[in-house]
Amino acid sequence: MKRRVFLKGSFAAGTIAVAAAAGLLTPRRVLAASWPETAFDAKNETDAVKALFGDMPVVDSDAISIKAPLQAENGAVVPIKAWTSLSNAEAIAIVVEKNPAPWATSVEVMPGAGGLYSTRIKMGQTSPVTCYVKAGGKIHKAAHVVKVTVGGCGG
Amino acid sequence: MAATKMKIKKDKSGGHVVMVLVKHPMETGNRKDKKTGKKVPAHYVKTMVFTHNGAAVAQASLGPAVSKNPLTQILLTNSNSGDTVSVQWTDNQGETGGTEATIK
Fold it and tell me: Which domains does chain A have, with CATH numbers?
């Protein structure tokens, strides 16, 4: 049942995205131009990572730390903080494997900013939260499992 | 309607941590209004651009999977007191907002 509702919802969201892309809301296109739409639309983690980073080698790394709860009582607000000791980080992304759309958020880091990104995300169910860091031509990743008691993806 | 707040804290690495809170509903487009039974249209922040002394230092891309009233944090590595830091956000309905602060 929930799945039905979600599927319908994702079509509705798709229509809005198309309308937006067609230029109905021109003033914001300049800023939104680099919003990685394909990554956000991807339905599984591998596709999403490919959509944003391309075919770079993915390696497990212990240079990434993730601070997140072991158990989240409310899936609508799960604080995630990721930081890395890699000095040349270019992008940091947070991906929730079992969310309907796994790609949660990402940040592009330019010179002058460090390898830290923290935000609060929604999680539908218990899932590993993976943090990807692009640095030096490779993608480094680390994961942390968050148990969710009540999902927070609407529907 | 949408208020944006920024806090800057000194980090032990020598830089500053910039924390931004945007008051925003972050609707996924999947939730139904309980009274009317209709879908609440998607409404979420898409991009947040952080600038430090006028130069962009980070651009965050957010999606519907980010919680209501998003609180984001980034780290500035090369910052000193007196510098200005600003943030500008845009959502999927064309609304924008932002704020500016000076490092103490």
Answer: 36-150 (2.60.40.2470)
Domain limits of chain B? 4-28+41-102
| Structure confidence by residue, pLDDT tens digits, A53-91 | 877 888 888 889 899 888 888 888 899 999 888 888 888
Q: Note which residues in 1-30 of chain A have CB less than 8 A from chain B.
A: 5-6, 9-10, 12-13, 16-17, 20, 25, 27-28
B4-28+41-102 maps to which CATH number? 2.60.40.10
Q: Do A9 and B92 touch (CB under 8 A)?
A: no
B30 half-sphere exposure, CB direction, 13 A CA radius:
21
User: Can you tell me the distance from the alpha carbon of A31 to that of B59, in angstroms, rounded to the nearest whole number?
Assistant: 10
- The chain B residue lying nearest A76, using CA atoms, is B67
Which helix (H) or strand (E) segment holds residue A11: the answer is: helix A2-19
- Chain A from 103 to 132: CB within 8 A of any B CB: 103-122
**Which of B18-22, B85-89, B91-95 shows the lowest mean pLDDT across its residues?**
B91-95
